[in-house]
Amino acid sequence: MNLNALADSPFSLHISFHKLIEHYEEIAATQNGPAAAYARAILEEIKPFPELRDGITKKSQIIDNTEVIGHLLDSLFPKALTNNEIKAVSIPYQDILFNQTNRFKNILNAAGSEFNISFRDYDEPSFYIMACCIILDAIYGTHLNFSKPLYYDIPDANGIIKHYRILYNADFLEISPTEKAVEITPEDITLLTDNFSNIDLWKEKFPVGSWNLRGFSLITLYDATVESAVSSLKGALLGRDSEELNAYDNILSVFRSIYRIADLRVGFIEFDPEEQVFSLPKIGPQLSSFFLPEDIEEEFCTDTLCMNSLTDVATDRIYFAVADTQQFWAKNPDSKLAKRLKEQNINSFILAPVIKDGKMLGIIELVSSRKGELHSVNANQLDVVMPFLTDTIARKVSEKQNQVQAIIQSEYTSIHPSVYWKFKKEVDKFLYLRSEKKPYALREITFTNVYPLYGQVDIKGSSDTRNNSLQNDLKNQLTAAIILVDKLAVSSGVESLESVLQHLRSYEMELGTALKADTEQQLQNYLDHHVHPLFKEALVMEVSNSPAIEKYFEDADKMGDFHLQRRKYETTVAIINERMATMLDRWQTEAQSYYPHYYERFKTDGVEHNLYIGEKISPSKPFDMKYVYNLRLWQLQVLCQMELEHHFNREILPYPLEVTSLILAFSLPLSIRFRMDEKRFDVDGTYNARFEIVKKRIDKACIKGTTERITAIGKLTVVYSNHDEEIEYLTYIRFLQMKRMVAEEVEMLEIEDLQGISGLKAIRIKILYDSSLPSKKCYTYDELLEVIDPEEMQYQKANEPNTPTL
User: According to the lineage, what is the superkingdom (predicted)?
Assistant: First the structure.
């Protein structure tokens, strides 16, 4: 019995049986026979209880009169149906229940004494508004479609949540106004229907207790567990809440409700039709598979499933159910699937293929710890949920593929956001013409009249350092191998070991000189084919030397001591590259805000970058040469900042490697074209290609008449080819000197003639290392103009700049 009326309601409640009593009075007065006798007997029994007609307003009046109320309602609650119907007396949108049928009582008893029945998604303001809508329909003749399904969620004795739809019969209710009632006009009705969620407005028009609700209603429940579970599943899968961490728990609860198995578990295994492999799911953080152990990421489908299972699931695309895993294993003793499931105490299971557009995306796994609970009959209950599961998994797979494509585009191609618009425009045209059945081939993307900028931070002496680290590792491995072979020769007396020792000592002598290109490969081949087989044989025969041999093989592993120096070198290069690249990317965010431009960078033994800026790249924005000047000034500052970053962090590197910096100045615009075969931009045209040639050769160039490289540790080098470029960059340098980023002394250098290239010059300037870390801001070209007279800057004159001599 539940007798808790809502605190706020437009109704003043009077639980009355007056309509039913009047019905009995009419039968007693107009009919004869058993029906009339029964009616008179009921009327006689209730005569001492006038509140049953006048209206019950207190809980105690129901509790004290439970028996007589039950007799009064016998005709509405037939005894023959009490164990089948789920029925009680109630009031719409109120938490009031009494006179339940036996089945209703049994359901509540199974839920436990601590369970309190209540409406799902209880919302008192909504119930208030719903009650107001009842008044509008009944009194004012509106036809508001206000009803929404109401449910009770009640656990059974096993803890499985069952869902019961609530149906009301309001034939025994009547509504009348009290003195608090407010007259409702047509304008009020329009206002209310436009403001459903405005609870204050509804309470203004329908004050609390302003209308009498007299009578009672009948409430009937029916088990809508499957329908409700499917609806909940749709919400969890198709809605945004499928992204939440508790989505898996919600889905699991739905399946347990459908199958009425408290410990039912759900898994999923992905299928790759191209490689014919099953793999652990990657489409959700909480999804797992019962068929693949966690230490196996993927497995050929024929290894996971036996041929019969595979045929049913993958080929015939039907549910595969096993009611007794032990019996299934006995019939298929070689089945990995049966063995793995038994190890997890899974004694019955169902496999359901997920098929979308003729392709299998994976398999849904339902498993139970008890045999016989899952079988080929109840496998068909999946029919109602598989469409939603399939759509959701297909969506997840598609989202994952889109993410993969996005990462590939971001990490492996050069389609920068600044030029994405032109690629999109070309593809849109291609798709449109293809839809019109017109032939069209994708064209190469070209940008004309763009100004190039190139710069690099190179790791100094990286090749020599790598060779030295390799040489030291090989020396250590050879020393250990010679000692072991010598011990084996003494203990076994095998003369052939002397020949092996001679070969190893000759390699040891060779490593004492400059490392040749093929030395590592030759030495490794000799060790693999002549030395290591001896050690492996000795592991069995020479017990005394076994620990030393095992230690040798441990050190020879990629993560062992014989690779220590190489790992330190590779780690150092990786740290420098990552730090420089990350810093450059971060500064690029600021540079793009000045004027959108194309940007790409490459990691080698250092970091290189290309910038292209011009009106064609961002035609929607007005272009001015000051944006080019601003970017050139930005580039100088960022390379200084990157040098500072390395300077303050080089001591923590495994190897104390240094870096050098270089910029190539090029004042003429050129054209770039996206090479479809290489998936990257390159300069377009024969003359412009010479710019690329200069980039590839200058980093190893020397000062004319010397063997000294034009790049130097702690200095920034700017390579140029004409006087206007010299004036421009000297102006930038003078500004950076004022900002204490570079030293006062400037070196003006001539560069040796390179193959097909002559007349190049360089400015080299020392970077100032003080106690401060790199700045978080770059000075702009406008800030430069505030301190340097623009009349002094000859590169801004109206005449064209001189053509560089290449």
Answer: Bacteria
Buried b (16+ CB within 10 A) or exposed e, 272-295: eeeeebbbbbebbeebbbbbbeee
- C-alpha dist (Å) from residue 454 to 612, 615, 632, 803: 9, 19, 10, 18
Cα–Cα distance between 549 and 405 in angstroms, integer? Answer: 48
Burial of residue 104, with CB atoms counted within 10 A of its CB: 0-12 exposed, 13-18 middle, 19 or more buried? buried
Contact by Cβ (8 Å): 370, 348: yes
Q: Rounded to the nearest 5 degrees, what angle is found at the Cα of 464, between the Cα atoms of 461 and 467? A: 145
Q: Which residues contact 98 (CB under 8 A, 6 or more apart)?
A: 1, 2, 3, 62, 66, 69, 88, 89
- Beta pairing, strands 348-356 & 359-368: antiparallel
The three-class DSSP label of residue 346 is coil
Q: Where are the domains of the chain?
A: 2-223, 237-403, 413-443, 462-561, 569-796
Residue 229 contacts residue 381 (beta carbons within 8 Å): no
Q: Are 323 and 301 in contact (CB under 8 A)?
A: no
- Candidates 674, 802, 240, 665; CA nearest to 418 is 674
Task: Give the pair of three-digit tokens for residue 457.
Answer: 């931070």
Note the pLDDT tens digit of each residue in 310-336.
Answer: 555 656 667 888 899 888 888 888 788
**Of 79-83, 129-133, 646-650, minimum mean pLDDT range:** 646-650
- In this structure, the dihedral spanned by the alpha carbons of residues 352, 358, 362 and 367, taken in order and rounded to 10 degrees, is 0
Q: Which residues pair with 174 in a beta bridge?
A: 214
| pLDDT exceeds cutoff 90 at 422 | no
Cα separation values, 732 from 540, 584, 722, Å: 72, 20, 16
Alpha-carbon torsion angle 695, 696, 698, 699, nearest 10: 110
Q: Contact 617/758 with Cβ under 8 angstroms?
A: no
Please state, in angstroms and rounded to a whole number, the distance separating the CA atoms of residues 220 and 586. 65
**Contact between residue 473 and residue 565 where contact means Cβ atoms under 8 Å apart:** yes
- Distance (Å, whole) CA 441 – CA 262: 59
pLDDT more than 90, % of the chain: 28
- Give Cα 594 to chain centroid, integer Å: 32
What token pair was written down for 245? 């961490």
| β-strand pairing of 446-459 with 742-750 | unpaired
DSSP string, 668-714: S-EEEEEETTTTEEEEESHHHHHHHHHHHHHTT-BBTTSS-BS--TT
With CA atoms as reference, report the closest residue to 213 among 320, 142, 131: 131
Please give the pLDDT value at position 282.
Answer: 65
Contact indicator for 535, 553 with CB cutoff of 8 Å: yes
Residue 763's beta-bridge partner residues? 718, 748
What is the pLDDT at residue 17? 93
Element (H, E) at 611: strand 606-613
Q: Mean pLDDT, to the nearest integer, of 140-146?
A: 82
Residue type, 679: K
- In this structure, whether the domain defined by 237-403 belongs to CATH 3.40.50.300 is answered with no
Residue range 340-369: mean pLDDT, rounded:
87
Q: What is the mean pLDDT of residues 670-680?
A: 76
Q: Which residue has the higher pLDDT, 83 or 157?
A: 83
- β-sheet bridge partners, residue 767: 742
Per-residue DSSP letters for 45-57? HHTT-THHHH-B-
